[in-house]
């Protein structure tokens, strides 16, 4: 693929010291984000999505330790390419140079990132004043423009509003305006819509897409919701027990998934047609990361597990130049196993729906 990489994570491993022992939260993650594209990171709770993005932002909690890996960030904002390795920065340097300024994050619950005692206008202006020493007048004008960009009507009037005077959807828009205030190159969205109702969720997703078109920003979504992924992602990484177990272009993950865990996630998703029919839930509970892995961490929950899965962790097998999955089922000597028939039917239906909507 001949595209510009903005972020490149290699062999990232992170653990946390806890009273119960060492939690191996991230185990050798490799991921890339390309300029102007959207990467969605999906997986059940505890799979390592948040820890991965916290490492990018330099906000890991105190008991976290990066055991290996690099995170290369290539900035093109100044017109020339500047490559920096984010893990080499101290927390202070990250706050001063990267966090909020080059890479910004939108959290799930807007109330936790908004200050209830400050008008929203001042909150949007704050980052520009801190990072760029922008004059008050200029920061004010830009804040008004940003409110307009995120679809808030009468932006000048709204500058003086306090968070409690706005609806949930409006607050999320304000949080997005704050995130965009320093013209970041990467926007990270942590489940930006789960606290909102379905129609407003869809509007926020559209808004981010629209902003992406206008600004060329690169976006990372972390979410449980494959419905969200289908709407927004160019590229999808599926995480399980601290590893990326499958990654590929969005259509490769939706129409030609290869990992039984991805089959499980797709089957567990409410049907796009009926909105409530769930084919299947993945049995068992997520792997306990306090334990040492022997073999594939997913083996216990995998009804397609082979003997080798209990002994050896599968490497990433290449499906296409853009699609990889870590399952022994892709080994040339593996028995032929294909996805469950019900899921095949569902995928076929999804494809037909997209065609009938005039999509790809
Ligand atoms: N500060 C911490 N101390 C100990 N363990 C932690 C800490 N932060 C995260 N973990 C562990 O790391 C693992 C990955 O957590 P993470 O929050 O990244 O999961 P997630 O996929 O984002 O889940 P969710 O969707 O619920 O946010 C979990 O087992 C979690 O318990």
TrEMBL record:
One of its GO terms (biological process) is peptide transport. Gene3D superfamilies: P-loop containing nucleotide triphosphate hydrolases. Residues 9-266 form the ABC transporter domain. It is a peripheral membrane protein. Keywords: ATP-binding, Cell membrane, Membrane, Nucleotide-binding, Transport. InterPro entries: AAA+_ATPase, ABC_Ni/Peptide_Import, ABC_transporter-like_ATP-bd, ABC_transporter-like_CS, Oligopep_ABC_C, P-loop_NTPase. It is found in: Cell membrane. PROSITE patterns: ABC_TRANSPORTER_1, ABC_TRANSPORTER_2. GO terms for molecular function: ATP binding; ATP hydrolysis activity. Its main location: membrane. GO terms for cellular component: plasma membrane. Pfam families: ABC_tran, oligo_HPY. It comes from the Bacteria. SMART domains: AAA (SM00382). Belongs to the ABC transporter superfamily. This is Oligopeptide transport system ATP-binding protein. It comes from Lacrimispora xylanisolvens.
């Amino acid at each position: 693929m001949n595209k510009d990489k903005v972020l490149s994570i290699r062999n990232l491993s992170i653990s946390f010291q806890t009273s119960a022992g060492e939690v191996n939260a991230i185990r050798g993650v490799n991921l890339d984000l390309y300029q102007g594209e959207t990467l969605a990171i999906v997986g059940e709770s505890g799979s390592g999505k948040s820890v991965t993005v916290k490492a990018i932002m330099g906000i890991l909690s105190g008991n976290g330790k990066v055991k290996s890996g690099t995170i290369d960030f290539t900035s093109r904002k100044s017109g020339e390419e500047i490559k920096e390795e984010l893990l080499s920065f101290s927390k202070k340097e990250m706050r001063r140079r990267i966090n909020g300024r080059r890479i910004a994050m939108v959290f799930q619950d807007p109330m936790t990132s908004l200050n209830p005692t400050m008008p929203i206008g001042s909150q949007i202006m704050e980052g520009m004043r801190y990072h760029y020493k922008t004059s008050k007048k200029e920061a004010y004008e830009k804040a008004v423009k940003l409110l307009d960009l995120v679809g808030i009507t009468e932006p000048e009037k709204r500058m003086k509003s306090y968070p409690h005077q706005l609806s949930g959807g409006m607050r999320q828009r304000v949080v997005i305006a704050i995130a965009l205030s320093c013209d970041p190159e990467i926007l990270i969205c942590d489940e930006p819509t789960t606290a909102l109702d379905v129609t407003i969720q869809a509007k926020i997703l559209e808004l981010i897409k629209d902003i992406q078109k206008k600004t060329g920003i690169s976006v990372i979504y972390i979410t449980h919701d494959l419905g969200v992924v289908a709407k927004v992602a160019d590229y999808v990484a599926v995480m399980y027990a601290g590893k990326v177990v499958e990654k590929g272009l969005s259509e490769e993950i939706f129409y030609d998934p290869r990992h039984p865990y991805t089959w499980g996630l797709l089957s567990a998703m409410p049907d796009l047609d009926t909105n409530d029919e769930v084919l299947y839930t993945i049995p068992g509970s997520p792997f306990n990361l306090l334990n040492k892995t022997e073999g594939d961490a997913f083996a216990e929950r995998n009804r397609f597990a082979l003997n080798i899965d209990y002994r050896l962790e599968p490497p990433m097998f290449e499906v296409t130049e853009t699609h990889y999955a870590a399952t022994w089922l892709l080994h040339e000597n593996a028995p032929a196993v294909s996805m469950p028939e019900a899921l095949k039917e569902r995928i076929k239906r999804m494809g037909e729906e997209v065609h009938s909507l005039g999509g790809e």
